[in-house]
Amino acid sequence: MVDLDLLAEKAEKELSLRFAALEKTAFENTKKVLASFKKHRVSEAHFAPTTGYGYDDRGREVIDAVYAEVFGAESALVRHNIVNGTHALATGLYGLLRPGDTLLSVTGRPYDTLEEVIGLTGVPGNGSLADYGVRYAQTDLKDGKPDFESIGRKLTKSVKVVFIQRSKGYLNRPTLSAENIGELTRFVKARSDAYVMVDNCYGEFTETIEPTALGADLMAGSLIKNPGGGMAECGGYLCGTKRAVELASYRLTTVGAGGEVGATVGQNKNILKGFFYAPHTVKEALKTAIFAAKIFEELGFEAEPSAHAPRYDIIQALRFGRPELLCAFCRGIQWGSPIDAFVTPEPYKMPGYQDEVIMAAGTFTAGASIELSADGPMRPPYTAYFQGGLTYESGKLGVLSAAKEVLALENQN
Ligand SMILES: *Cc1c(COP(=O)(O)O)cnc(C)c1O
């Protein structure tokens, strides 16, 4: 019989240097956030809700200013009414691209939900980029790295946007570091006038620098992931150069009005408080992910990334090999969550997915993946994708609950 408490204690001892490095990153990022709050004189008045047009919403303006500064960008557009990460990314793409332009993805196929936006799947006539005459080209990663030779060849005059996805998402590929993206950006900028746009989902605050500080023109993400710090109730952000953000803002609202309008109806405080917490929350999620990798590696399962590998996002993949074990893992995560811990998740058919999917999500905010959550498609090799954890203590308890379920099943056989 495996003694899980003992295993956990041993794992934490072995990970202590790793955890110390994460504390340092969170400290540096918190320092940056605090300095920016001070410089922009964030005050209680900024929490006041506006209604109607939302003209002169000082809270909205200060949120944009601190996001831009902390992420090393000229400008930002942070809004509760950007409904998710896909909406933020689509707003950026529609803002930058015009008929006849080419969108070149240089990290392989973009995240699933962008396929219909681009027009790779879905119903013609729905208004995808393809419907507007925007062409799409792609280079795949080669041995997990950008294929510079192929990118150089495809970087023709018609390429208006070079698209980089930082996180592996649900693909089997490495996540790019900010520096990897910086190198790619320099390569593109030396050869073309194209905008470099980054899908930064799950990457924020995992390092002390973001892709926009290294030259990317536009970057987007979700507030119910890293930068919302577990506090933002909803929303998304874009940041980058003044012009790129302006073009995105014209797409989000209307040409002319852009980011100058939009009532914040009481969301400013949560967004600011979440940004204040985010460096810390991301650290807690990273510690939880690394702890999970370590525990399940000790139990004989494959973890990607492995417990000792560098990390540039908060996603942890764990390979279970058998459907019952994937279900046991998700069950354990659910039973170790703060909300709906009494519920048992079952695999089900989801629209847009080929196979049945099982999900564990006992979260305060619906669908928030900065909170402890897991999901996996019911197909070989039965991989659980797992992320989040608002506090390391609760994340650790969730991971141990999952380990207990997996072990109980293994001991039966
Ligand atoms: C989460 C995510 C998105 C956006 O997903 P939403 O569910 O729309 O927020 C896009 N790209 C990547 C890599 C992601 O992880």
The first-level CATH class name of the largest domain: Alpha Beta
Q: Which oligomerization state do the chains in this entry correspond to?
A: single chain
Q: Enumerate the distinct ligands.
A: pyridoxal-5'-phosphate
User: What percentage of amino acids are in beta strands?
Assistant: 5-15%
CATH homologous superfamily placement of the largest domain: Type I PLP-dependent aspartate aminotransferase-like (Major domain)
Q: Strand order of the main beta sheet, please? A: 1-7-6-5-4-2-3
CATH architecture of the largest domain: 3-Layer(aba) Sandwich
Output the number of helix runs. Answer: 11
Low-confidence stretches: none
Number of strands: 13
List the helices and strands and how they pair.
Layout: H1 4-14, H2 16-39, H3 58-70, E1 75-79, H4 85-96, E2 102-105, H5 114-118, E3 135-138, H6 148-154, E4 159-165, H7 178-189, E5 195-199, E6 218-222, E7 236-240, H8 242-252, H9 268-298, E8 302-304, E9 316-319, H10 323-335, E10 348-349, E11 356-361, E12 373-377, E13 383-387, H11 392-412
Parallel strand pairs: 2-3, 2-4, 4-5, 5-6
Antiparallel strand pairs: 1-7, 6-7, 8-9, 9-13, 10-11, 11-12, 12-13
The chain binds pyridoxal-5'-phosphate (PLP).
Pyridoxal-5'-phosphate is lined by residues 84-86, 111, 113, 165, 167, 169, 199, 201-202, 222.
